[in-house]
Amino acid sequence: MGEKGGNAGGYLVDVNAFLKKQRDIKKYVPVVAKKQIRILLNSSIYKYKGVDLAVAENCMNLITGYSGVGKSTLLREYFPQYFNSYLYINQKPLLGNKNSCVATVLDLSNKISELYAKKHKKDKKFFSNLTGNDGMCPVCLGAGYIEYGGDYHQSMRVECRECEGTGFNKNLKKYKIKGKSIFDVWKMTLDEAIDFFEDIDKSITKVCITASEIMLGHLQIGQATATLSGGENIRIKIMKASKSTAKVIGVDEPFKGLSNIEIDAVANYLNRIREKGKTLIVIDHSTGVEDYFSQWIQIENIDNRLIGKQFK
Ligand SMILES: [Zn+2]
């Protein structure tokens, strides 16, 4: 099956060509660890009494350990106690309101509305599908779907026919840029958007290129965030983390379920974040990923203390 996810994936590819590409990946050489940060904590969380391990500063650190040993607890609960400037990223859905889509989480929706407003000399609200704005679909109030059911029954979502799931007022279909309305843009994938925005807006193009590099190019601009997989959620969060001021970033299973090509893309992107002076601490089980890391730490639960043993 194909190498990409979502709508772009699932097609048949030449198996030999695909396997060759998988084998031909040339992994970067991780930097040599210079300084260790020893994390020694004696606070109790759940059944644990504390932690003792060292991570390499300004490096890619890999943490492994048997299932249920407490790796996520370490990243989610203990590290914020130790590091003043820390960001934790996992596969959980992105926070947002019910109208949030790929464009809103990647901060593109405002920019796109502004482009159309400027071109057609209208107020930005005229091209915004946010609830209460002029460009909102009057039937679904900008959500793009209608929800049936309520407190006692499981609710069901049906795409809004009026706005074709975009959340926009259909009057906006007649306003175009390069022959495309905002409806058309909402249905574009991020890969398609690279070509469309290339000569219109550099900042939008840049976000789309980055998304494509981290294997998210198949996502639709107007795709609801509720439909994203855990792997897609975590990669969007990683994209956003590149702008974070946190000095230490903990990432919980970014490679889970990915092909070698995708793992390589995500590891390269994480390493680029590291190059900005950050320390990365990653939990993962995928085979072969240790090559991307300067330091590999195996976690063990010894007398309810999480102890790290260095492999590399
Ligand atoms: Zn609608």
Automatic annotation (TrEMBL):
Listed A to Z, the keywords are: ATP-binding, Cytoplasm, DNA damage, DNA excision, DNA repair, DNA-binding, Excision nuclease, Nucleotide-binding, Repeat
The record's section on Pfam families has: ABC_tran
TM region(s), chain numbering: none
Q: Does the keyword Cytoplasm apply?
A: yes
A GO molecular-function annotation: ATP binding
Family according to the record: Belongs to the ABC transporter superfamily. UvrA family.
| Protein name per UniProt | UvrABC system protein A
* Natural source organism: Blautia faecis
